[in-house]
Design goal:
3-stranded antiparallel β-sheet; flat; disordered C terminus; alpha+beta
Length: about 70
């Protein structure tokens, strides 16, 4: 299965909430949406997700780029 890395979008929140819960950081989709907004609104930051097929299973660690 091919994978790609892309910038996160607001509609990734529900899937990221599942991932965060599995990693031991429980958060519902509303909380993740609020957190994503901070990243997406910051022009100096980028949050990347790995997409495999039709489902985005994970987000690699990232740091703000300047």
């Amino acid at each position: 299965m091919a994978s790609s890395i892309r910038s996160a979008r607001a509609d990734d929140a529900p899937r990221l909430a599942v991932l965060l819960d599995r990693l031991g950081y429980p958060a519902d989709a509303a909380e993740v949406t609020a957190r994503l907004k901070n990243w997406l609104d910051d022009r100096y930051s980028r949050l990347l997700v790995t997409e495999m097929g039709a489902w985005s299973p994970g987000s690699p660690p990232c740091t703000p780029s300047r």
